[in-house]
From TrEMBL:
PROSITE patterns: ADAM_MEPRO. This is TSA: Tityus bahiensis Tbah00160 mRNA sequence. The keyword Cell wall biogenesis/degradation does not apply. It comes from Tityus bahiensis (Brazilian scorpion). One of its GO terms (biological process) is membrane protein ectodomain proteolysis. GO terms for molecular function: metal ion binding; metalloendopeptidase activity.
Length: 416
């Protein structure tokens, strides 16, 4: 892991519309926190809720032998994590000394300490906030001239897809998706240490949780660990699938199938414990049929209804420097793994391709990736998506997603 290098696109270097602010965090007698600042010619107040539950208490890293090690102070990180679901805010707030804040105020606005900005008379540290430019215009997330991306799911192999499904008795259970996050070596080297990598991944999945909440089923995400590949430890299932003549791109479907085979054969450690395994891939994804042209409009790929199966629970999601886009991509792939189809396709073929649906057809200009949304309240799942996941959760395939709830305040998924 000594090959970690700092990469500028993840460091606190703003490049969009930027304001310097001096935020304050106030704590009421009841313990509730409120973030206050002035930016974009208006006063902003965000009521904050703790978000540390997204990290498992025994969160750790997995080495190339699938052994666990624990380089991050999980309790300390958990207590720093906050969210505001209405705006899609996901923040790390450090109150040990002068308050520092890092993360996203909503889907489009980032905040981070401004190291050379000093301190105001009240002792508040300077921060910069940046309104991200529209990725559709920059096209930076695909790094080519594409005007749309395609999200592609694959059906399960027949022997898995025909598994007997039956309604399960799950009264009194909570739905938790335990995630192993995998990072390719290109992505891993963006960070200077384990803590920075963990913070970045955690804040991203906090955004995914916000969109998952729109299913209104009480589904919770829990990061159980990270499998961070380096140049020295990365298995060949990524680089070996580079497209001849287009080596910057890897063939998306072969990466998925090869990754699936790898974790199927290495089903131990966190890989065994995880309900889903999702690769954040910094290499460009593309489709190739052996001809001279390639399809570079690929944002991710997953096995539909693949969660829980040791040889089907994997997905690949392209990385984007845009918080909004990478959250949507990860949400989309996670949704496929728990049985949610694209609206207008498969079990959701009767759904219209509305602009507000996270699962809208990804080749449409109405897909949320193209909308100028300011927060995640504009990203939601359709009614078809809700029915899809309800069906999946009623089958034996989804058994691993249910666990005993920490309290008795439970609403059954199957109440009518």
């Amino acid at each position: 892991f000594a090959s970690f290098l700092l990469f500028a696109t993840v460091s606190a270097i703003p490049n969009g519309r930027v304001h310097v602010v001096f935020p304050a965090v106030e704590t009421s007698r009841s313990g509730e926190k409120t973030l206050k600042l002035r930016a974009f010619d208006r006063d902003i107040e965000l009521n904050l809720q703790p978000a540390g539950e997204i990290l498992a208490k025994n969160f750790g890293f997995m080495d190339d032998d699938h052994r666990l090690f624990y380089p991050v102070d999980v309790k300390n990180l958990q207590r720093k994590l906050y969210k505001n679901s209405a705006n899609g805010a996901a923040l790390l707030i450090d109150e040990d000394g002068p308050v520092t804040i890092e993360g996203n105020l909503n889907a489009k606005v980032r905040i981070a300490p401004y190291e050379s900005g000093g301190m105001d008379e009240a002792g508040r540290i300077a921060h910069w906030i940046e309104e991200e430019e529209e990725e559709r215009n920059k096209k930076a997330y695909l790094r080519d001239d594409s005007t749309y991306f395609s999200n592609l799911w694959q059906q399960l192999p027949p022997d898995i897809d025909t598994e007997n499904t039956k309604r399960m008795d799950r009264e009194g259970k909570c739905i938790v998706i335990e995630i192993l996050s995998v990072t390719d070596s290109n992505f891993t080297k963006r960070f200077s240490n384990y803590e920075e990598l963990t913070e970045y991944i955690t804040l991203t999945y906090a955004g995914v949780q916000t969109i998952m909440d729109t299913l209104e089923l009480g589904i919770k995400l829990r990061l159980i660990g990270i499998h961070a590949f380096t140049n020295e430890t990365e298995p060949p299932f990524i680089e070996s699938n580079a497209i001849p003549g287009h080596e910057r791109y890897v063939q998306y479907n072969k990466v998925l199938s090869s990754m699936n085979r790898y974790y199927c054969e290495h089903d131990y450690g966190l890989a065994k414990d995880a309900d889903v395994i999702i690769l954040t891939n910094d290499r460009l994804l593309a489709g190739w049929d052996g001809g001279p042209d390639i399809n570079t409009n690929i944002g991710g790929v997953a096995f539909l209804s693949g969660a829980c199966g040791p040889c089907s629970k994997v997905a690949v999601s392209a990385h984007s420097v845009s918080y909004d886009i990478r959250v949507i991509l990860l949400t989309h792939e996670t949704a496929h793994l728990i049985g949610i189809d694209d609206d207008g396709e498969g079990n959701s073929k009767n759904c219209t391709n509305g602009k507000d649906s996270v699962m809208g057809r990804s080749d449409s200009p109405l897909h949320p990736i193209f909308q100028n949304f300011r927060d995640f309240s504009d990203h939601a799942f359709s009614e078809c998506s809700k029915q899809d996941v309800k069906y999946f959760l009623s089958t034996s395939k989804a058994e691993c997603l249910f666990e005993e709830c920490p309290n008795d305040n439970i609403t059954s998924l199957f109440e009518t």
